[in-house]
Fold this protein.
Amino acid sequence: MSEKLYKIISKVFNVDSNKINDETSPENLDEWDSFNFYVLLDEIENEFKIKFDLDETLEIKNIGDIKKIFLKHGVYAE
Amino acid sequence: MKNEENLAYFLNEAKTIKPRELGKKLRVAFLASSTINGFEETMRVKCFQKGIDCITYVADYNQYNQEILNQDSGLYKFKPDITFLILDTRHILGEYFFSWYSVPYDDRQKVIDMKISEIENICDAFTKNSNSNLVVTSLQIPNYSPYGIDDENITVSLKKVIYEINTKLFQYQKKLGKIFIYDFNEFVRKFGDNNIFDYKQFFSGDIKISTEYIPKFVSEFMGYVYAVTGITKKCIVLDLDNTLWGGIIGEDGFDNIKLGDNPIGRSFVEFQKRLLALNQRGIILAINSKNNFDDAIEVIKKHPNMILREDNFACVKINWDNKVTNLHKIAEELNIGLDSMVFFDDEPINQEYVRESLPGVLVIDLPKDSSQYAQIITEMKEFDILKITEEDTKRSDMYLGQKKRKELENKVGDFNEFLKQMNIEVSVKKANSFSIPRISQLTLKTNQFNLTTKRYQEEEVSKFSSSDDKIVECVQVNDKFGDNGITGTYIIEKKNNEEWIIDTFLLSCRIMGRGVEEMMMNQIIEKARLSGIKKIKGEFIPTAKNKPAENFYEDLGFSKEDEFWVFNTDDTIKKPEHIKVIVNE
């Protein structure tokens, strides 16, 4: 479920896909800032055709959290 | 249409670009009443792609008032060329945005006036403190009212209020030269409020233009960038087959090309109508097509659904030469730079060839689908200039006149006979408030027939013209093909009772070589004689471009004394007999 997601993350943050894992967060990835996080969410929503709730977006602390929301929305992206 | 890159692309690209040494330079400041992350990055990248090195300044979040009112602010230290002030309705109205309908009727006008003067005061302060161009966004007209369908019946509804504020702003802009109001509602109409405004992003980060639409919004500003840096395009060069009509005239024939009356044909008619409107505004059109001349010109002359006719094209190259050779010829004949041209051709091979060979020409990535052509041209910002003058709107006519002159010249063969048939009339006029801006423009822009190449701003020309020691005159040239406008000027310095010195003497290159320059010198000498002046002295200051004027003095019988060319007013000067002179004192 990660390949497409990682591709988007890698594109938005401009980092290599293999540097990304569930624990990736603003704390350990310099390229992740408060503004491009909105860009990331927008891209994910468009690519996966889902809409995050506002409270869901606020809960996201790392990439693993995004995957959890995916499961809630029934998204199994390969 | 080719999709615009998304914001992630611009954010990352902005990190990699470095200023080049030879590019145009531009300093851009952004001020806003909301979060504008991403704006400056996008603008820098877009500028970079157009060969402009853009340096930006972004005011801190919602600090635009302080930045503008404080004379020592970072904004003014930055010395921007263009400043964008992005205001929004929610911010300007504050609580009124929600509670407008509970404001008593009698108080509403007061609130409106207050809001208008708030914005105007800010702009006034800015113009006092800075020479920068200022672009202010107008306010978005809300698409909701608590009064619902009855809102239209409310006398001072919120929609009408915003409309009124905007109207006042547009009137205000006309009074001040360097303030431009960008019609934000044009952007909203194009993309839609529900797309541009994303509640989630707004609540999360006070983002009022959603990240997805930021690149599209910044694109809207590019017209100002082109206009201020002077890289505006003046001429559209068009292919014919599958560009101005569907099909290939040489294969399909006059009756079978697609133009009007069917879906494909309509798309070409629409495209031509957009081109015609641009042509009438002063954008020059030219044809660059590989075809049998007779086949193609017959369509342009006779096809019932053709919108653009022969007279709309200032230059027509229908032949079997390659596209690049033709573009060179068009540039030469119209006397404009290749970098002021846009090239429309449906063939990817031609696009690529021109793009590779002539990097200055803007080559449009024209797709196979002709239904997109009209939209492509309406989305272009490359024709934008800050103020369209009467001279601009007449440009197409002037180039048409030029083409007809050329045709007559070729037909007559003998050049002297051609000049006689042209019925050239030269009006000599003293500089006045109407002609001073044009005279200044001529000194700034004329390179070829310019004896001294001294550049003068309007204020300087104005000062000279009111001085007793100087003569500032200009000539307007008319002939049987129309008015060429004010195309020549000279500035004489009355040195003493014996001598006058030619400070400036120039003629626009499109008039050069028809005797007008000789006639101008005749005027000067005549005038000097009447004032009892013995000698006219002038310098030739060589530049990289003024070779055409090199032998002018000598040809007219001036003799060289040190660095000056001198004419004794007792001598007779060669006079062009084919020109009629009208002197307006």
Remarks:
- The two ends of chain B are 58 Å apart (CA to CA).
- The CA atoms of residues 245 and 438 of chain B lie 40 Å apart.
- Chain B has three domains: 7-229, 235-393, 419-584.
